[in-house]
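Appendix B. One record, verbatim.
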Amino acid sequence: MNLRPVEIKAFVPAYDFALSKAFYEALGFEVPWSSEDLAYLRLGSTSFLLQANTSPEFAQNFVMHMLVENVDDWYRLVMSSNIPERFKVSVQVPQDQPWHIRDFPLLDPSGVLWRIGQNIPVQAQ
């Protein structure tokens, strides 16, 4: 019996499906497939499904975490692409967290919270 999973994908809710899809494309995600209410979004070897959802409360209680190689480069991309102004979203500067991650929070147009971060090496004591 082979019970190894191949992948796990989250269904990320989108209150305004077209706006959310444009937001993720502006971040660099590609959309290999899309219908009127579901889209497959991919960036490198990571992916998720964007799902039209009419419940803002669900989106505003949804959190995604994306681990990257260089969080400061990602923050610069978000800011240089004018993502906050173009999509009326909130972003904060990267900070070192006590759980050994340097990250920054970014809200998508539906209120989904993304924490984009990188591991901070733990110093030997």
